[in-house]
From TrEMBL:
<dbReference type="GO" id="GO:0005886">
    <property type="term" value="C:plasma membrane"/>
</dbReference>
<dbReference type="Pfam" id="PF01098">
    <property type="entry name" value="FTSW_RODA_SPOVE"/>
</dbReference>
<protein>
    <recommendedName>
        <fullName>Rod shape-determining protein RodA</fullName>
    </recommendedName>
</protein>
<dbReference type="InterPro" id="IPR001182">
    <property type="entry name" value="FtsW/RodA"/>
</dbReference>
<keyword id="KW-0812">Transmembrane</keyword>
<feature type="transmembrane region" description="Helical">
    <location>
        <begin position="12"/>
        <end position="31"/>
    </location>
</feature>
<feature type="transmembrane region" description="Helical">
    <location>
        <begin position="306"/>
        <end position="327"/>
    </location>
</feature>
<feature type="transmembrane region" description="Helical">
    <location>
        <begin position="273"/>
        <end position="300"/>
    </location>
</feature>
<keyword id="KW-1133">Transmembrane helix</keyword>
<dbReference type="GO" id="GO:0032153">
    <property type="term" value="C:cell division site"/>
</dbReference>
<feature type="transmembrane region" description="Helical">
    <location>
        <begin position="78"/>
        <end position="96"/>
    </location>
</feature>
<keyword id="KW-0133">Cell shape</keyword>
<dbReference type="GO" id="GO:0008360">
    <property type="term" value="P:regulation of cell shape"/>
</dbReference>
<feature type="transmembrane region" description="Helical">
    <location>
        <begin position="130"/>
        <end position="147"/>
    </location>
</feature>
<feature type="transmembrane region" description="Helical">
    <location>
        <begin position="43"/>
        <end position="66"/>
    </location>
</feature>
<dbReference type="InterPro" id="IPR011923">
    <property type="entry name" value="RodA/MrdB"/>
</dbReference>
<feature type="transmembrane region" description="Helical">
    <location>
        <begin position="152"/>
        <end position="170"/>
    </location>
</feature>
Amino acid sequence: VLYSASDGDETVVRRQAVVMVVGILAMFIVSQINVHVFRSWALSMYGAGLALLALVLFIGVEAGGARSWIDLPGIPSFQPSEIMKIVVPLMIAWYLGSRPLPPRFKHLFWSALMILIPAALIVIQNDTGTAIMVVMSGLFVVLLAGIRWRVVITGFFALLLASPAWYLFLAPDHIKGRILTVFNPYRDPTGAGYNIIQSQIAIGSGGVYGKGYGNGAQSHLDFIPESNTDFILAVLAEEFGLLGILFLICLYLFILLRGSYIAYSAKDMFSRLLAGSITLTFFIYVFVNMAMVSGLLPVIGLPLPLISRGGTAIVTFFVCFGLLMSIQTHGRLKEP
């Protein structure tokens, strides 16, 4: 799919193959390490992650409208914000897992602070989508820790009430445009609504069986922007149809169910919180991308996991899988 979405660019495919190999090796290495070793490294990893996010503000390289990359001589460029999707839940799981549950207010306060600081640094880099996922990855740990429902409901309504004020006074114009586009993409068919319109045309033209591999007109005639990253699902739908999408969803559901089982089977709270957060974050990633490409959610620049072209994002997904494998192997044992 990536080869077709990249219009036959072998360079993109070769680079992706290298990234996949690196990711698989990282997954294997992480899976062999006792997950409780990562628990002991949580604070150090969190501090290092914040330092990298701060470093991006000074030496970061811009790509795709976001200044979130570090490109130093002698090492491959990487995106610290993607790494925080692992580090933040690791940190929150370490913090809450060693304290009485359900968490008290002061523990919730410090957890929120540990989530919002890296998220704010990522927002400054103009990468709202990744910032949202970092917040979600930490929030899932808090929810799984047994936070009281009245706190959840209160927070939800507070967020709901604050949304109009945020939209009117704080949201940038391009974010407002993306939100309005969800309700009517044809209000700006050559601007904010262009991506969604072309994506919906591609998905609809694929039908049930698709047009066949390499025969997607929308992608090969360059109507779909970011066809090998954020909108690769539209290419897949046009070429393989509804059946291809359903097959991909089944694969994702298998990962979701397997991760849920590992989280449920974990014998200690740290492993359970971490595995649950990893699994739910992966699910949200898939859901948001599919909803975004379908026009059900605003475009926030999230790739389709393991399918879209990427570097740091793909490696971090494999590292997360390695952590799940480590939890399956070591998380059932008594903590050292």
